[in-house]
Each structure stands twice: as structure tokens, then as C-alpha cells.
Design brief:
α1 (about 20-30) links the parallel β1 (about 10-15) and β2 (about 35-40). This protein has helices at about 20-30, 45-50, 65-80, 100-110, 115-130, 150-170, 195-200, 215-225, and strands at about 10-15, 35-40, 55-60, 85, 130-135, 175-185, 235-240. About 45% of the residues lie in helices and about 15% in strands. Strands 3-2-1-4-5-6-7 form a seven-stranded parallel beta sheet, with helices on both faces. The protein is of the alpha/beta class and about 250 residues long. α1 crosses α8 (about 215-225), α3 runs parallel beside α5 and α4 (about 100-110) runs parallel beside α6. It has one domain (about 10-240): 3-Layer(aba) Sandwich (Rossmann fold).
Length: about 250
């Protein structure tokens, strides 16, 4: 396991914190050369890059031109990109009848177009090298059984990622494998804003607890590696059994 990413270059969007950061640490520990990404070049992102001896880039994932330039910058340093992991995303609760067009468009701009933009920038490089792995981070909320009326725009955007993942797998097989992971409740800085009602939901999962970013990173890393060489077009739900709990 330790060297399964030896010789591989892995670009991870939204890797300044949470699941993205945990994934960056794990693929680095397993031999990858990591390219970190954040919306801005925050002190934490720079510190993490120094710790992992990694390159880092900063851009708004919803800005196609900025993403193209960002990938060019990364490519100039690394010479290739073998693996793309898309962790960047936003979730902003808004009552459905009060949600503006701008709200919906901003969520889709980040959560859907952000993935599209990076895939469009990176896939041609993978095609040239005749090798590629893409892992998109969706959400359990993107599946009908766990969709949320409280964050409807987020749920819908993550459902789009599940569908997009399968479509990309069909389009770019057999050279590029494309899969997704749908996290359930996970311990990140977002949990600081959760109320008691959300924590009660967490406890209804079959495992009865919240997930750790490192646990999600294990699933993402597996799908990004050659250990998953016969898997493509799939979405793995990693939610402690919340979706099937029936509660």
C-alpha cells in the first residue's frame, strides 16, 4: 500500500482542508507527487504544501479560463497529471421558495462546473499519456434516499456529479477510469455550524457515528489507484450506513 502512487502526479481540488486535505496527506504517504489546490493561496494551503513538499495552485474552480491557466501552471512544474480528485464544493442552505436564481447558479457553478472545468483541462493530458484516473466527490445527498430539502441546491448539484461521473466513464474508457465517492456526515470544519437536529441525524446511521476525513480519504485513494483497475463509472457511498438505515 505504501508505494501504490509511486511515480504518479495527483491533483486534488479543494485540498486546503477537510476531506481534500486528508486525501492529499494519504496519497503523499503512498508515494504520490501532490498538487494541492485552494480557492486562494491561504496560509494553511501554503503550510500544507511545505509539509508535504507539494506544489500548490489557487483559483476559482468555476472560472474556466482560470482553471485552464492553473492546470498549465501545474503541468509546467510536474510534466504530467495522472490522477484528478475533485473535492472542491460548497453547501449553502436556502429555503426552496426563497432561493434566488443566483443562489442556484452559484452552487452549480462551483459544484458542477468546477468539476467540468478541471476535467476538461486535465483529460486531454491524460489522453496524451494513455493513462488517467478521476475521482469526483459527490455526496450521499445526491442520491434519492438521502436527498435533503434543507440544502436542495446542494443535493441536486451532487446528483449531477453522480450522473456526470458515469457519463465521463463511458466517454473516455478504456484509457481513463472515472469514479465517485459520496460521503455521508463527515467531521470537518463545517460541523461546527451543525445544530442538535443534524447531530441526531448522524446518530441514526447504522454505525451510529460521524465519519472521519481519513476514512473518506481511504475510499477515494482506493478508487484513484491501480488497485481499482477494473472499476469505472461507479459511485461508492461512504456514509456509515445512513442511506440504508431507514430511519
Amino acid at each position: 500500500m505504501k508505494g501504490i502512487f509511486d511515480g504518479k502526479v495527483v491533483l486534488i481540488t479543494g485540498s486546503a482542508r477537510g476531506i481534500g486535505e486528508a486525501t492529499a496527506r494519504l496519497v503523499h504517504a503512498r508515494g504520490a507527487r501532490v498538487i494541492l489546490h485552494g480557492r486562494t493561496a491561504s496560509p494553511h494551503l501554503q503550510k500544507l504544501a511545505e509539509e508535504l513538499q507539494a506544489d500548490y495552485v489557487a483559483c476559482d474552480v468555476g472560472d474556466k479560463a482560470a482553471v485552464q491557466e492553473t492546470v498549465k501552471t501545474a503541468l509546467a512544474k510536474t510534466g504530467k497529471i495522472d490522477v484528478l480528485i475533485t473535492c472542491a464544493g460548497i453547501a449553502t442552505p436556502e429555503p426552496f421558495l426563497e432561493a434566488s436564481d443566483e443562489h442556484w447558479l452559484e452552487v452549480y457553478r462551483t459544484n458542477v462546473l468546477g468539476v467540468v472545468n478541471f476535467c476538461q483541462a486535465v483529460i486531454p493530458l491524460m489522453q496524451q499519456n494513455h493513462y488517467g484516473r478521476i475521482v469526483n466527490v459527490a455526496s450521499m445527498r445526491g442520491h434519492n434516499a438521502a436527498t435533503s430539502n434543507r440544502i436542495m441546491s446542494y443535493s441536486a448539484s451532487k446528483a449531477a456529479i453522480v450522473n456526470l461521473t458515469a457519463a465521463l466513464a463511458k466517454e473516455f474508457a478504456p484509457v481513463i477510469a472515472v469514479n465517485a465517492v459520496s460521503p455521508g456526515f463527515t467531521q470537518t470544519d463545517i460541523t461546527e455550524n451543525w445544530n442538535d437536529a443534524v447531530w441526531k441525524q448522524v446518530e441514526t446511521s447504522l454505525l451510529g457515528r460521524i465519519g472521519k476525513p481519513e476514512e473518506l480519504a481511504e475510499a477515494i485513494t482506493f478508487l484513484a489507484s491501480d488497485q481499482a483497475s477494473f472499476i469505472t463509472g461507479q459511485t461508492l457511498v461512504v456514509d456509515g450506513g445512513y442511506t440504508i438505515s431507514g430511519k
